[in-house]
């Protein structure tokens, strides 16, 4: 970065809020993507930390004028390299956008600055009895702005949907520095094209999100977790489809390979209660009354029995429930360093057993195996290609291509929730036709004609590509 640029940016944010030292700034280069998949960060990039929309807007206007790429960084919990600057960039950290502007109990909405983390929002809601925000991607260090631009999902999407379903208003800064307010505390707003929906899931490529208005909901007081083993995946999947059709509305329905459940439990010093059967489900229920919770449990157990469940374990206390959840969410920690490629495909829910069988067969064909973890009721399957002797196997591109082909045959998508980022830039072309890709590029050009925002992410256009 030129000295003049550093000086001009320092004039905007103050010397305490800009980092040029390599050791300090390298903490901002990567997200949580597996080491083997990381795009290479450009080490000339510097970090700038505006404190409010005015400063952020001034930085964007300067970057636009000087054609300096800008990569916005939220909590850095992304899984597809979106927050990594691959060309010399300003890394615009949102960590000072921390205000919870209002928890509006009358309208049941929260207005927040974009750098508030999910944990901070949940802590704030503890003080507002009976009110909850339901979307929960696995890492509570994710910022609300990051969750908006990645359109985060997570286990509770079965009942509550994804981030897009709860966003009511945004304040955004366009690449030329202009500030726009979209939507508001409205439950209905049908005025023109929904730019708010376009920006949701845009992965920091169209605008910076500075404020968010989210819808809130009454809190369920009673919860339980069921761990259920089935003889095979077909039975487990048939039970899931019937549960959803029955009108019982679980908070989450999760699948994880039994091997992973047992290994993670051993690693954490916990006990996984299902040793029988081939396919384990974890179903989380939450209801407003104890009676409704018991009824939902009974209905689910009856459906599972009908589909030859071999064992069902009920966790009622907070401790028992937390331990099961720790086993489900702790598995990533033990496989993260073994992964050559991490997939996030989704297929129609009824095609899940076929899909999982097909993925395992493909792995076998290449002499390897694949770990499978799934938000199964959503049809969202996370699986991997494993390293061999610590290296990415030469067959990785071929196996990946065959896994995608299987996914497309079943009517699926390359990413259900983590996004395209930099990891799936080329893969997107396998799924989308030219006309659709061209429309995406034109939209990018309208918002960001000089291509300064997050180059090399989602779609590639000719633009600002300074090195
Ligand atoms: C253990 C673990 C489990 C996870 N489980 C799930 C899951 O179940 N479901 C799920 O959907 N995700 C999951 N994730 C992924 C991740 O937590 C989400 O994608 C999250 O929404 C990213 O938010 P962030 O603030 O960390 O964004 P970052 O990683 O900082 O950035 C992600 C992208 O958003 C852009 N961005 C960030 N903030 C802004 C802003 N204010 N304005 C404009 N652009 C911005 C960045 O440029 C980047 O392209 C998981 C991650 C981990 C580590």
TrEMBL record:
Q: State the UniProt keywords alphabetically.
A: FAD, Flavoprotein, Oxidoreductase
SUPFAM superfamilies with a match to the protein in the record: FAD-binding/transporter-associated domain-like, FAD-linked oxidases, C-terminal domain
UniProt keyword Oxidoreductase present: yes
Q: Which residues form the FAD-binding PCMH-type domain?
A: 40-219
Which cofactor is recorded for it? FAD
Q: Flavoprotein: present as a keyword of the record?
A: yes
Record-linked Gene3D superfamilies: 3.30.465.10, 3.30.70.2740, Vanillyl-alcohol Oxidase, Chain A, domain 4
Entry's Gene Ontology molecular function annotations: FAD binding; oxidoreductase activity
Q: Which Pfam families match?
A: FAD-oxidase_C (PF02913), FAD_binding_4 (PF01565)
Q: What's the protein name?
A: FAD-binding oxidoreductase
